[in-house]
Amino acid sequence: MTKVDVLLGLQWGDEGKGKVVDVLTPAYDIVARFQGGPNAGHTLEFDGKKYVLRSIPSGIFQKGQINIIGNGVVLDPILFKEEAEALEASGIPLKNILKLSKKVHLILPTHRLLDAANEKAKGSNKIGTTGKGIGPTYTDKISRNGLRLGDVFHDFDTKYAAARDRHVAILKTMGENPSFDELEAKWLQGIEYMKGFDIIDSEYEINAALKNDKKVLCEGAQGTLLDVDFGSYPFVTSSNTICSGACSGLGVAPNRIGEVFGIFKAYCTRVGSGPFPTELFDETGKTIRDLGHEYGAVTGRERRCGWIDLVALKYAIMINGVTQLIMMKSDVLDGFDEIKACVGYEIDGVPTDRFPFDVNTDDIKPVYKTLPGWKTDMTKISSEDQLPAQFKNYIDFLEKELETPITILSVGPDREQTIVRSSFKKA
Ligand code: GDP
Ligand code: IMO
Ligand code: MG
Q: Is the pLDDT of residue 300 over 90?
């Protein structure tokens, strides 16, 4: 029996998960998403083309791998249909390679309205959600009011109407007067479209695959600092983005987890509200945003930028049991004279190396170590022996601090701009 490998974000999302899942897919038989939904935006680039995937796993562009959307995911039939039809139109035989769990929870049109109403009610304390109805859908799941994809085959109209009417009543108590006829019609079309896919007991499919020594890669969405338990609560998403989310979101037992690939950027970004200890408000922050094209793949919002935060990264590595690190976007720092890394926090004058409970309210002063830049265009480098010495020093420093090997380096958005180091441990 084989184990599953898990690839997940260690920061506030958008680390480059989509790109690396695509790069690693040839070594796997199955790629599976285990949480989140269309709040994700995973970008892939190859052959001069760029794709942004929201709900569909990033393993669909290689040769014949099966892609699974697991029970831990929430799907919006409207957005799923849009995304899937565009991929079908570009020649991807999606209905042959993509399977959906019966236990996926459905995002209703009224969930989106509730997301907007909740944000409005929070006023200046709003989360800055993606507005896709993620929070209200997971809320319904946990409070046992959710609607699942498998329900489409059992008395669906009645179940849908009950859920919708319940939401309308809540929206009215919030002072909203919802109208969504057009959205509802599109949503019902989306449901019909989804019935054209293989809707399966994905927990059985994945465990049977493992029994047959097939290789499975689990693709995380969002990042550890957006995890509902361990992130910067309440400025988080509503699912477990961490490694254990792969167990509950796919029906894979904890002792079936193999390699855990933790992805991080050579700096740090965040989109939406919430604390960000190493955020830069100066020219350097703006330079990183411009060079890194740091604008949200889903909402187009500006991403906040700052230096790499090793306190937060160590925390994320601990929570996830990361076995291999993957560093993205170091090319963005190619022209910098100096690079900073946060090696500790000072809270009320007291030094700490822990990510604090009160990360939202504490006055956190990052303590930085300054390292020399490498001042070399790395975007065309394809093997580790071509790396500049100062960059190697930077990697050595990070590996020592993080006590985990960095086995893959990404030096550009394209599939080809990836350096797999000799320390990489294959599936
Ligand atoms: P994800 O949500 O983790 O899949 O990441 P996103 O796709 O939201 O954001 C990552 C962005 O960085 C995308 O625009 C990628 O095309 C781009 N990207 C990924 N890796 C690299 C890299 O190594 N260098 C540069 N310059 N861009 C990258
Ligand atoms: P990927 O998979 C970055 C953020 C939102 C907001 C918070 C809650 O592309 O890395 P939600 O809509 O989930 O209720 O929003 O989480 N957020 C993301 N930020 N990347 C993502 O996904 C995100 N998904 C949600 O901006 O702050
Ligand atoms: Mg993204």
A: no
